[in-house]
């Protein structure tokens, strides 16, 4: 099962992990916010931190738009997410979007 | 004439006593079709308290999600899925939450592993529906809707078992509140049993193949097809 949406983070030089320069709170729901919600629910900042810590690609749903399907938490347990949107409107403002 | 003589005797119908002059025939006692029945202690609760489920019981878990100790893809569905279905009878937190969410996760990620387990799920489904408790019936109906779309041929595999799970749906099918022009919030929250039953039967018909409609009609005569005509 290949990821539908993959980004290359090589240009960021993920050796020890980049530190985000700024953070904004999400105001409206979007696909980026949905993925950020899923990572933050599992205890990570975002996808970059997940890849640094777990050293694996997050498993995604094969159907568009390819949200995150399964994440492994730091304690070794697994979180599973639905195909469709899970982030409710009332939780959007809690989601943090980091800029590098 | 004394008061005692004027009092009417209560008598059951079709008895000699009913023919007496001052007897009043009373109707038969209520059959209790809608009366809730207490659920037996479930195997789910026993296994949960023993810690046999691969679920992390943490209190810092955010939102409505289960943290799985083992990847769902590696679970033995023949063992765990019927146990989680058995927990659908539960109404108490946290058993109710873990059973419902566990079933949801296993159906969402089961794929082809669900079909062989179908025969073992029928008894727990029947037990849950037979409790006649509205929250339990609502949860079970939503689970059934998810079940028929969870894997290929699952809907068709359920057809032989309609005679075991549809009689309760026949009883509650007309359980709709007539609120006039008011707003029925239970519809919005998907807690209106009559509407849920209609949705579930339509899902059965859509995914049950050619024989689904006639089998549904046999058990729920007032159901009309959503695909024919």
TrEMBL record, chain A:
Residues of the signal peptide: none
One GO cellular component term, please give it.
nucleus
What is one Pfam family matched by this protein? Meiosis_expr
Q: Where is this region: Disordered?
A: 1-21
InterPro entries found in the cross-reference section:
Meiosis-expressed_gene_1
Instruction: Tell me which domain of life the UniProt entry assigns to the organism this sequence originates from.
Output: Eukaryota
Family membership, please give it.
Belongs to the MEIG1 family.
Task of the protein: Essential for spermiogenesis.
**This protein's name:** Meiosis expressed gene 1 protein homolog
Q: Which organism is it from?
A: Ciona intestinalis
